[in-house]
Amino acid sequence: MTVRLSASLEHLIEALAELPGLGPKSAQRAAFHLLDKDAARLARLSEAVTEAKTKLKRCRSCRTYCEGDVCPVCADERRDRGLLCVVESVPDQMALDASLAWPGLYFILSGRLSPMEDRGPEEVGLTDLIARVEEGLREDNLREVVVATSYTPEGDATAYYVIEALKKRAPDLRVTRLARGLPSGIEIEYTDLSTLAGAVYDRREP
Q: Where is the Toprim domain (predicted)?
């Protein structure tokens, strides 16, 4: 006879299993780890999740998470507003910025194109990107857009789609992609900082 878990415990495990990198077994271990902690720690975790849900929103310019209408990066007047880097996710933005190689602004997509997961151009935010580029052309003398998607099949497809869409809307705009210094199949988020910096410096026309 197998041990049956309570409905509330199963619900907790199922919720944790939806997080990236957590399968059923690791979600189960995480659930028991949380339950083994004292009530004060669980209360702090619950409070942090609630606070993040109520206070955080998307920056109206780059779509990163922040507590105001505009994030600190977009509000920083020292940034070169004529340069825009398109990334797949907030962790990708953080990794590139930590390399100290990118002096401009960012635009964050909602992942990569993936027909298998029903993520098309609208789902990843292409309409918002086009609007952001048109705003940059009008107000900031936008000179260059760097497409910094991962060098994976889906990342390549996303880059190709974005590049073609931008060229149709703004034929005179310089559009580049990170150099192939990034190994094939690598995720931007997990690339070391020196490789990221070299890829930014060696960017090229697609």
A: 82-183
**What is residue 2's predicted lDDT score, i.e. its pLDDT?**
65
pLDDT at 1: 54
The residue extents of the domains of the chain are 7-53, 79-201
| Residues whose CB is less than 8 angstroms from the CB of residue 39 and which lie 6 or more positions away in sequence, other chains included | none
Question: pLDDT, tens digit, for every residue of 20-42?
Answer: 888 888 988 888 888 887 777 77
Q: Give the chain's residues under pLDDT 70.
A: 1-3, 181, 206
**Distance in angstroms (rounded) separating the CA atoms of residues 154 and 202:** 22
Distance, in Å, from the CA atom of 38 to the CA atom of 90, rounded to the nearest integer, reads: 32
User: What is the predicted pLDDT for the residue at 3?
Assistant: 67
